Amino acid sequence: MKITLGRQSILLLGVNGLFALAGALSGTFLNVFLWKSRPDYAMLGWFTISQQLAIGLTFWLAGKWVKEHNKMSALRLGTALSGLFYMVVLWAGSRAVDWIWPLGILLGCSLGLFWIAFNVVYFEITDRENRDLFNGWVGLLGSMTGIIGPWFSGLIITRMADNTGYRLIFTVSLVIYVIAVVFSFFLKKRKVSGTYRWSEPWIQLSKPDSPWRTLALGLFAQGAREGVFAFLIALLVYVATAQEYKLGQFSLITSAVALLSYWAVGKWFKPQYRSRGMFIGALILLIVLIPLLWKVTYVTLLIVGIGSAVAMPLYILPMISAGFDMMGTSGENVEKRVELVVLRELCLMGGRLFGLTIFIVTVMNTPSLRMLTWLIIVLGAFPLIGWFFMRKLLKRPEGQESAG
Question: Per-residue pLDDT tens for 372-388?
Fold first, then answer.
């Protein structure tokens, strides 16, 4: 039987694609923009921590509105706040580094609102059969925007004097966020039911036989890596080359590889391959970091980027799909889908904060590139730890409630 996506799924992919494009245009260079004003690794670490704290808190607080009222308004508000963030950055200019915590909280709130609404709607309009296909398309669109956005931004920023290029790119992102809000009005208002249970994430994690405890460990391990890698690899490319264009080129190449990888995994990856695929992906994610031990250059970073682009779909899609499949294993879980989405994000946040804390302690005490390289290797091993926790859960027969 041919697996397809419905009209609402395609519309949701469109909104996500616009959101990703705006982020790819400006987000790739946001940390570089801050770095040029103040070259301080710890400052960027605190900026990312403020985002993660705001994302987690927003997920938990906004869960009530999403479950009991209108989840589409949360999605639109999150998109609008993303636009507001870039308006503030445009206004602040080089003084933005003096407002790291307020800016990080604003960006985190915008991301939290968008992603809690997106994840709940995504669960409602997909099922176990087409979830990998939908995730593959999300990755495909993310890769396409990653090809176009950073390369275009790097070209513009390099060719324009001072920070004029940054101001132009941030303005373009603002316009795209507005377009995404308009597109979101074509998504149908989803039905609401039940009462939001504030303590549900902790209740699930307190049950000794709950499969969510297993998933929580896997998500924590995933977050430990991505919290730092999400900004550090791109920043190191700029530090190694001192050229925004090179960073755009780096993103173009790695995103093109990721596009092919997500397309292949989305097309051929089946639920029964999830455990083996996740292990292979996690192993590759670690192996490609080894060249950095010799020297951190554009070439060795490109090896990391290309290898990660190949391996990430194998690692991340099983993690995402397994979590959302668990939400559909019983009527009770479906009813608590909002709370379980919140639980998922809080586990990721915990891992990201753990990784970022280690990063900040490291750069504040031993701010050498060599130590930073070893930190990258250590955090790069966490996907294997994530697979170790998830391996039984990924082999769990459909419908089984416990990971055993």
Answer: 999 999 999 999 999 99
Q: Say how far apart CA 46 and CA 58 lie, in whole Å.
A: 18
Report the C-alpha gap between 345 and 236 in whole angstroms: 27
> Cα separation of 226 and 203, whole Å?
26
Range of the domain at 94: 7-184+203-394
User: Would residue 154 count as lying in a domain?
Assistant: yes
The pLDDT tens digits of the residues spanning 255-276 come to 889 888 888 887 777 777 788 8
What pTM did the predictor assign?
A: 0.87
In a domain, 401, yes or no: no
CATH number at residue 91: 1.20.1250.20
CB count within 10 Å of CB 153 equals 28
**What is the three-class DSSP state of 69?**
coil
Number of domains observed in the structure of the chain = 1
On whether the CB atoms of residues 100 and 46 are closer than 8 A, the answer is: yes
CB-based contact 93:37 (threshold 8 Å): no
339 located within any domain: yes
